[in-house]
Amino acid sequence: MKLLAKYNRVNIPITIATLLITGVGFYFIIRYVLVHQIDKDLRIEQQEIIHYINEKKSLPEASNYKDQQIQFQPANDGLFKTTFSTEHRYNSRENEVESFRKLQFLINVNGQNYIAIVKKSEQETEDIIQLILIITFSVIIFLLLILFIANRFLLAKIWQPFNHILEQLKQFNLSSTNKIIPRKTEIKEFKELNEAALLMSEKVSNDYESLKNFTENASHEIQTPLAIIKNKIELLLQSENLDKAEIQSIQILNDAASKLSRLNQSLLLLANIENRQFESTEKVNFSKIINQSIENFEELASIKKISIEKNIAEDVFIKVNDSLAEILASNIILNSIRHNVQDGKIKIGLNEKSMEVSNTGNEPNENTSDFFERFKKGSSSGDSLGLGLAIVKSICNTYGFAVSYFYKDGIHFVKVDFY
Amino acid sequence: MRILIIEDEKSLSESMAAYLSAQDYYCDIAEDYQAAAFKTEYNDYDCILLDITLPGGNGLKILEQLKDDKKSDGVLIISAKNSLDDKIKGLNLGADDYLSKPFHLSELSARIAAIIRRKKFDGNSILQFDCISIDTQQKTVTVENKLVELTKKEYELLLYFVSNKKRIISKEAIAEHLWGNDMAGNFDFIYTHIKNLRKKLMDAADIDFIKSVYGMGYKFTAS
Fold first, then answer.
1. Domain B2-119 belongs to what topology?
2. CA distance B93 to B82
3. In this predicted model, which residue has the larger pLDDT, B88 or A295?
4. In this predicted complex, what is the ipTM?
5. Cβ contact (<8 Å) for A223 and B101?
6. Which of the 8 DSSP states describes residue A386?
7. What single DSSP character describes residue A180?
8. Class of the CATH domain delimited by B126-220
């Protein structure tokens, strides 16, 4: 649910309730005031009647107007008390109930008791109250209308900075260099949100940066001790008087140290690529690089009796660092040999738009969607580290190439789109 | 042959010196910038192994100095930084090759041999081992004066063996030398190459030059 809807869900009933309650309150107050006014008029009438009797010593004439009626009824005793009351009467002529305010009081004319009844119509009062109700409801409807318009047009504008920063946060990406740029706003809450988002993104970026630097530095620092271990193992190997068990131990040490060293170098390369230390503005002849790479691995392929079919356009220039171009080509081609089968096939295609390598191979037994993730290995990778394709992806990301992989009917396809 | 090892890590320079001394190189060691600058100025070396990050100064300055003095010492840069900048800078300043840590001593030895071969090239490009002659210019191999047809990788493998003769070379080192880092750890291909090379040499000279050592590696020897 939108905040606005939630807000309206609270706001509108409260507004309507408030208006209704004030309307009702207003009704009673006005009614009380007006009835009080009528009662005052009735008392004045009473004074006048009493005054008339005192002067003339006779009953005044009864009258029967629409808004005021005076009647006299003979009374048996003098115990009647003055009372105010309201009387409703159905008027068949106008087909409506008319209300009257009635004052009854005892008078004495020449020793004879009478009850005088003075009635005044409340018609005016009702008209006023009706008017008040109409005004109240009009205000409610008008207010709702205004709220609707305000929500629709004004609030959308007020929320703009919020929507802007939300969009920026959604697009925030650690590996890209674009930063969050909030829109200027006078609203305190949004200002705070902008500041917090900015601060957070900077902190995250800095942390990421220092993590990357740490990885790189750590990898560097590991190189020298690794070099010492490997070289000492190699020297140890040269000793004349080693027995078989000792040589086996040395071999295990050597395997582990070598794996560690390859791992470290691959991670260092990844860190270097991600730290954009391979920026390049020159174009390299990718056709040449691929041909060299194929030549380099031809013998490797022939050992497994793999045939390579080349379809390489000449002089395809792409903007990429030449060392990375070599790594890109050799990683993909090597992969197609390594994961191939005996007597398999490899097709390598290159044109201005893309490079495509397809090879025969066993069906991958894992989900292929994360093939380019680090340390993900396919089925028959043996001793591979699972970093080759991660490096390919990292290189592609650096230069804005799109890399994709899929498997169909015994063939693996890897495609790099340059644009 | 004189080699100067400029390296501040003592255990590393000692290993290098131990391996190379057994290859009949005479090894000198400099542990910091000052010692390196002094030794390169007053001595001539066939090859200098130069670590770029040195206590007391940048190793690249030594290269500049050598260039200024018009010295023709071969230089192999050894760096823990796999950074491209250093590599390009170093090669532009006249270094002959670049090797990043960690490396195999057999690889180091092969690289040094290649540098010295190039530097000392005076009309003679023939590398001789027992009855095997390798023409590094023509990239041809003759055994007992018979031409042996080798594939590119078999040739590289033979050259590698000869540069590390009588030493045990691990399969790892061979894989890395032939295919680069990515193929190391995958030895099936190595076996095929070794098998083919051994067969071709045996066909020509009836000597098994390549000895397997407990499945750990190989040793190239005449007897």
1. Rossmann fold (3.40.50)
2. 17
3. A295
4. 0.85
5. yes
6. S
7. P
8. mainly alpha
